[in-house]
Amino acid sequence: MKQYNIAVVGVGAVGKEILKTLKTRNFPVASIKVLARSAREIDVDGQSYMVEEISPESFKGIDIALFAGTEGEKGASVTYAPSAVKEGAVVIDNGADFRLKDDVPLVVPEVNAADVKNNKGIISNPNCSTIQMVLALHPIYKLSRIKRVIANTYQAASGAGQSASDELYNQTAEFLDGKDLTIKAFSKRIAFNVIPQIGSFGELDYTTEEWKMVYETHKILHDDNIKISATTVRVPVKTGHSESIYIETEKPLLVDEVRTALNAQSGIKVVDDINSLQYPMPYESEGTDDVFVGRIRKDPYVPEGLWLWVTADNLRKGAALNAVQIAEALINDGQF
Amino acid sequence: MKQYNIAVVGVGAVGKEILKTLKTRNFPVASIKVLARSAREIDVDGQSYMVEEISPESFKGIDIALFAGTEGEKGASVTYAPSAVKEGAVVIDNGADFRLKDDVPLVVPEVNAADVKNNKGIISNPNCSTIQMVLALHPIYKLSRIKRVIANTYQAASGAGQSASDELYNQTAEFLDGKDLTIKAFSKRIAFNVIPQIGSFGELDYTTEEWKMVYETHKILHDDNIKISATTVRVPVKTGHSESIYIETEKPLLVDEVRTALNAQSGIKVVDDINSLQYPMPYESEGTDDVFVGRIRKDPYVPEGLWLWVTADNLRKGAALNAVQIAEALINDGQF
To answer: Which residues numbered 218-277 in A keep a CB inside 8 Å of some CB on B?
Structure first.
């Protein structure tokens, strides 16, 4: 079996998760180069990695470069992806910078793996909140075109990076101890609060996160006509995004056929047994690979209306796992 | 000014909040009788009250009896309201048991105060999640009939009572200390988690809480044709419910006219300045009387579609304050 020279750029929450995922999935690795702003040694789950200082020359001989950009800021890919591509690597970028460019495929492998073919050196990994939504929409879309999506999110702190994840626990401890709160990673208090803003405000007073769910879903499903509108909200959960998704299909669907289609979808696990109070919850999604779907039910008044409750580990399927799956799709596509 | 003999039944989170509210609003009280299952002395914000053991004879001479029933269980009103009414009292019931009965008005005073006229001795206080939603819908409904409502809630622990409220902080401390979690008031872990179930499961796999938002809103707005569908979710917040409400009106509205109408609505405070990152948040709603509305924006694709983000103190406007306001509406109506 062929093995590949891999670069991982960034050693934040997502970068570390990529290193773990390459190992747990037995990715055919010939060598791993870990790149960041400064050289140092890091430990990830008991394995030590030597981090090298990134430079345009870092990508010589690299087959696949996995960039772990920071959500909401420009990623290292803006500076270094062109050098990596020039050296012959395919870049898989976790950041938002390239996602909507025409010549950059945006891929959730279970949905549109074939799109990897069209890459010109860069493939983008979608936003965490898009990935789990679009994977749940995909099997339903195959039953009937989807006309509308109204999405509300309950997003975990770690989606905003390691410092935000730490701030949730530290600030909560400060609160319970009656101390002054340290508010730094988030612009508002997150302990025992919810913040109805993720990203910065843009067109029509929607946030960047809310627009990502619209445009990225259009691109992945190859359908710009779906009327998607979202409200994205940060909740005091460490890891595991939840989404309440209201869907309007072209033709009315039965709950049973929706459940069957979701069950048959690779990457999805249906958890929907209300008699034993089983439904997806974020803390149970942490550390798992699947997208969990439950609370599947029809709108009482609108025959085409349908609800789903969807959770996933935002660092895994929402980021690192999906990026590694894109690399696997590239290999399966015979690009190396 | 006439003064009234008041009974308050129940000394849980809502009962105590009613005692506080009667005081802070200078309700014209001649006497207050506090009733519960067992006699004892309690302290509420530095004032002591002698609790008497409730019996059918407790209501002699009482003008207004405020019942603070427990959400999701039968309230004391089922047993004692008939005796209170027989003694000539008007019962204002915080529980769910009488809300949908034909001869029981269900009242949010800013919306349908006139309905108090039609009482036959019992007036119901709506569910907390209904009250804040319907108050926000009301001024919009006056601009255009509302065709559809798709609601997602982010509800605080104290909505499930004092023990649930305590469990949130205690369990969170246990979690941060690495101890075993005590899960008792909620059926699932609430620390750093969200639970997509409030109440018990019923028709079409919706929960009792989700149906309350449908039927109670129909009754208060006198319009059974609004297509309302909700997903209700518990979040790790102590007090302050948040709701993300998607509205479809009959005619398209401008954001500015919606904002103007909301601003003019008594009981509502618009907090919607995204340039300075101002929007309603639950921890800022705690201990306040208003219903806060922000994130007012149009659906990018559906001209009749409109989003609101609404927060309120679930123990005050969502319960105790609204109950006392119903009593005030009764007095203003000249029923005494």
So the answer is: 227-229, 231, 233, 235-238, 242, 244, 246, 255, 274-275, 277
- Which CATH number do you get for residue B197? 3.30.360.10
User: What order do you get walking across the sheet with B227-231 strand by strand?
Assistant: B227-231, B146-154, B241-249, B305-312, B291-298, B268-270
Residue A52: give the domain boundaries.
Answer: 4-125+319-332
Statement: residue B336 has pLDDT above 90: no
Query: Same domain for B272 and B162?
Result: yes
Half-sphere exposure of A182 (CA within 13 A, CB side): 12
CATH number at residue B107: 3.40.50.720
A275 and A221 share one domain: yes
Backbone angles phi, psi at B204, to 5 degrees: 55, 25
Q: Domain check: are A23 and A152 in the same one?
A: no
Stretch B285-307: mean pLDDT, rounded? 98
**In A, which residues are within 8 Å of B147 by CB distance?**
none
Instruction: Inform me whether the C-beta atom of residue A154 falls under 8 Å from chain B C-beta atoms.
Output: yes
> Do A97 and A197 lie in a common domain?
no
pLDDT tens for residues B165-213? 999 999 999 999 999 999 999 999 999 999 999 999 999 999 999 999 9
Q: Is A274 helix (H, G, I), strand (E, B) or coil?
A: helix
pTM value > 0.80:
yes
ipTM, interface predicted TM-score of the complex: 0.96
